[in-house]
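User: Can you model how zinc ion sits in this protein?
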Amino acid sequence: MSLNQNLEQLSNAQGVTGRESEVRDLMIRLMTPYVDEIFVDKLENVIGIKKGKEKAARIMLAAHMDEVGLMVKTITKDGFLQFVKMGGIDDRILPAQSVRVFSKKAAFPGIIGSKPPHIQKEEERKKILASDELFIDVGAESKDDAKAMGIEIGDPVGFDIKYTPVGKGAAIGKAFDNRAGCAVMVEALKLLDRTDCAVYAVGTIQEEVGLRGAGTAAFKVDPDLAIALDVTIAGDVPGVREYDTTVKMGKGPAITITDSGLITHPKILRWLLETAEEEKIPFQTETGLMGSTDAARISLTRQGIPSGNISVPTRYIHSPAGVVSLSDMENSAKLTAAAIKRIGAYF
Ligand SMILES: [Zn+2]
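Assistant: Here's the modeled complex, given as structure tokens:
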């Protein structure tokens, strides 16, 4: 399957933080042809292994499988679902969003409702509605009706946006944070033939609520070094200052120098930058970004694991839909594979 087809499947799959099974099953299917061994660990990270030579370095790749979303918190007597947010979502983007509520019986379409503007007071209209004032309408007529649909407290709720190619080699879709990284990881495995080093390709869980799966997976794998494959903010939209980020869509993968959880190990940075330059792969660098990735957690596991990030510039992350350039994804995979092939010169 092509990168584009993999991204489409991964983006349309459901995997709100803590409920990643559909994405995990898909990752198992997509990675299996390119690894020697694959297993699911106790917290349900998936780990694909490409065996290497005995004395060569062991590298861990980490792409988180979860996406930001919602979870049913209460069901009102009239059948409306109140919710909590799973991961960092801006309350301002929630009203009127189409969602799907994943009950044990079926996935129900719903809409995030709020009080109409016509009956809001002047002051109410100016204020941002907080997520605890919003609710999901799935057409249930009462609490019992919602329960009869199989809807329960704790059910995950995902945004309902279908993957759509747009423009010249770009795509709109949900959950590009981090299905783009998952697709890059599969593509990088595909580009790697035999390698001297052992590659542990890990689909991690619960990144969006604190980089949780990456920590336990890194402890288990105990690699010599690690790369998180994730997305980063593309700042090429109106209203973003160059100071905030210089990363743009279509200009190649972003190599992190620093973010709020990681100062990339100098050797890792040199390895990635020299690989990109020598292999003539377009790239960008970024510094001082708020937020972090699985690399932050992995780097502080055990006695410390030198780690870095290769990120796909993505517009509108942590909102219901994002935009990515497929060439950035291809180049992210190329950079990952090329770096792994050159690992012996550095580690
Ligand atoms: Zn992410």
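A couple of observations from the model: Residues 176-191 form the longest helix (16 residues). The first strand starts at residue 37 and ends at 40.
User: Helpful, thanks.
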